[in-house]
Every structure is written in structure tokens, then in C-alpha cells.
Amino acid sequence: MLKLKNVTTMIGEHQVILDVSLEIAEGDFVALLGGNGAGKSTLFRTIAGVLSPSRGKVEFKGEAIHKYPAHKIVGKGLCLCPEGRLLFPQLPVYKNLMLGAYRRKDKRDIKDSLEQVYALFPILKERRKQMAGTFSGGEQQMLAIGRAIMSKPQMLLLDEPSMGLAPLIVEGIADAISTLNKTGITVFLSEQNAQIALMITRHGYVLENGSLVLEGLSADLLQNEKVKKAYLGT
Amino acid sequence: MDLFLQQIFNGVMLGSTYAIVALGLTLVYGILQIPNFAHGHMYMLGAYVCFFLITVVAIPYWPAVAVTAAFMAGGGVVLEWLAYRPLRHESPINSLIAALGALIVLENGVIALWGPQGHRIGNPFPAVFDVLGITMSGQRLLVIVIGVALMLLLQLFIKKTTLGSTIEAVAQNQEGAMLVGINVNLVSSLTFAISTGLAAVAACLVAPIFMISPSMGAMLGMKAFIICILGGLGSVPGAIFGGLILGLIEALGGGYISSAYKDVFAFGALVLILAIKPTGLFGKEVQGRW
Fold first, then answer.
1. How far apart are the first and last CA of chain B?
2. Nearest C-alpha of chain B: how many angstroms from A13?
3. What integer is the mean pLDDT of B209-235?
4. A80 touches B at CB < 8 Å
5. Beta-carbon separation of A71 and B178 below 8 A
6. Which domains does chain A have, with CATH numbers?
């Protein structure tokens, strides 16, 4: 479904992503592991079209998308739920969600998605009139995921959804992401929290200094000595 | 008492035009993250376009206002595209310099075409009403009615339509807006079109009351900026109330103390309000890009 071929991304003078190639099949659930500054967010922002790669190719459903602007890529069914959430803080929850469906036309279909989001995160329904900026970190993360679902993505890129959240809330979010994958959405999840990411995903990649250094089944990566040492702290 | 009511009326009239111009400035602030210092000069250009249409093309007042609004909305789009879009990812100081460049070009362009002296547009509504001892000219009443109508329409557009809420979304989080599929370039163009179109209508409305001159933009641009600071930069209700407050301060100060000092009252009020509430009346504390 998603294919990266030798992707290199520069930020200013720096090569942040270096020659990354990977392929994700439809319906798969894939983790992207890496420490702070490894380039996880830059890779995701490149795929989503916020940044454009200086070399290489990004293909989504067989179509080259690396020259498209971000707003067009959302319409193709590939949605990034960004690091730091990037919500609209002074708009109510409901409007944040409806703006997530900005590129869709079918009113009834949008309403179905809204019900899906409310079913996944009932608190968003309870607080639909509250300003997004008044939410706690965990609620904001739920809203960010909800807003991404509203675009009816076939593939979802989730950039560090656990960042800054309490362990119990992280578990809840992880459950929600697994549920989304079971409904057929292909999920690519970037995490510093390798433990939980490898527990819920099927495949994993490890990014170091902008390059992929390891890949494999998540269950195998959990047992890998290098991963254990660098990311699991055991 | 009569003098007081008269000055309140004049203040509200003045305040509605200030509010419309300041609204445009505040909307565009959401896009640029800097005040568009050329805004007052686009207002001035609007007055001259209207003057040109009425005197040279010789069309009646209302069609002239409509054509001016449409033309200047296009002018706003061109200004954004030429002066600001190429600098979007640069330091905000560059956009500030571009704004100063644009206003110099606008002011001197108008001087080259129409000369530095003032002009007057004939009053389309010379009728005068006497209500409770207040003298209301038709044109002044019109300024208030249309001003309030435009503010309400704009508020409805932003709060009730999807297209309108994209303006708020882009102002609150540009990258977040891109990621939900909003074309930020298109929204920037739209915002400049609305903002400049509004300023042009305000200019057309007051042109029959005051003289138009190439320097009228600089003072009004500065006042619109004051209003936005008074109300809190980026706040729509702030721009509306700030505009009315400034209009009232000027009218009352001018009526009771001295009209020669009316600008002093305006700037004095700014200093005073900022000393008491540094974020402005409706502003929230935000971390700026400065």
C-alpha cells in the first residue's frame, strides 16, 4: 500500500532522512522505533507531504505522491496524526472533528465517521462543545486521532501518540489504535515507547540517525538483543 | 446632553469604519502572524478607485462601491501573492519589510496618478435627519448600518460555514490545517480578498464624508493597528469593540476637549490600556514568533 524508495529528506543543510526504503502492505500494523532525533517525525512528515524528499520516491496505492502538497495527500486516503497533535485550540471539539472531514463531501458518510469516533472515544462526545485547548494531554491525543479518523483514511500515520501521557492512558490509546487496525485501516505507528509499540504491531522498523537499521516481525524485535539494549532498557 | 449624544453618534459612525478596517487587519494577522502594515494603504487605494469610477467612468455610487470592493478584493489577493507568499517560510521581519515596501509603492503610485492634493466624492445621500436633537446625515447613518451588517455577515461566515472555519483553523495551526486537507494558499488568498474588500467598502462609505488623500491610509492603518492591539491581535470581537471604543474616544475627546488633539486621545488610550492589560482587552497570552 505504501512504498518508499531511497527517500532522502533535507532540513536546511542537514540530511535528516537518508536513503530509506520500506514497504507496508494493506491492512498491516507497523511500528517505527527510534530514539529522540532519529528522524521518525521527519520521515512521517515527508510521507504526508509536509516536507518533500530531496531524493527518492513515495508511492501510495501505486501512485507517486511525493510531489503532492500535504492537503492533497489527505484526500488520497493517507492521513498523518502529527507529533504534538496540532489541534485547533480555540475551536470546540466538534469543529476540530468536522474540519478533519474537510475534504469529504458525503454528509451521511461524515456522520457515520463522527459516530465511529464518538464510539471509540466517548469523552469526545461528552465534551464536544469544549474548546480543544482546554483538554488534558490524553484527551487532546484522542481528539487528534479522532480528527484523523474523520478524513476516512485507508492508512494512518500516528506520530508518537504516547508522548507525555500517563501509562494508563497510553494503554487506552493503544487499544483504540488496535481497534482501528482491526476495522481495516493500515497503521504505521512511530514510538519511543518500544515496549508497547512492539506488543500491538505485527512488523517493526528501527530508525537510527535517519537510516533504517533493523526490520522484522515485532515479536522477533522484542527478543532482539540490540533492540532490548537500546530501546527496551533490559 | 445634545452634544453628548451627537458625539456618541459620530463616535459610533467613526468606530464602525475603524472596526471594519481593523477586522481585516486581525484576520490577516492570523495568516501572516505579523500586522499587514500595507492594509491602511489598500483602504486608501479603495477610496481612489471609487473616486475614479464615479468621476471618470461616471457610474452611480452603489455600483461603484460594488466594483471597488470586488476590484480591491482582487488587489488583496495580488498583494499576498506578490509581497507575502514568497516570504512565508522566512523570518517575519522580512514580511514586515515587504509590507513597508508595498505601502510606499501604493502611496506614491496614487500620488503619481492623482496628485498629492485631496479630492472629494459628491455626497450621494445629502438628506439630514433630526432625531432627539442629534443631527444625522444620511451618509453617516448608512456607514453605521452597513458597517454593522458587514460585521454580522463576517461573523456568520466564519462561525457557521466550513469555508469560514478554515480561516480560523489556519490562524490557529497552519500545519494542523494542512494535515486535515486545507489548502493553506487558497485560504490565505481568501482571507486577503475578504480583508481588503472590507477595507475598500469602508473607504467608499466614508469618502463622501471626509476628503480623500494619499496620506489617509497611513493614519488609518496605524489606528487599525492600535485597535487590534487594544482588542488583542487576532481577536475578532476585539477588533469590533476596539474599533467602537477608539471611535468614541476620538469623538468625545474631540467634541469636549479639542478636535485638534483627537489623535492624541487615540494613542493615549492605547498607552493606558496596554499599561493596565498588556495582552489587550480580548487577547490571550500566546507565544509569539518574535
1. 47
2. 15
3. 89
4. yes
5. yes
6. 2-83+153-231 (3.40.50.300)
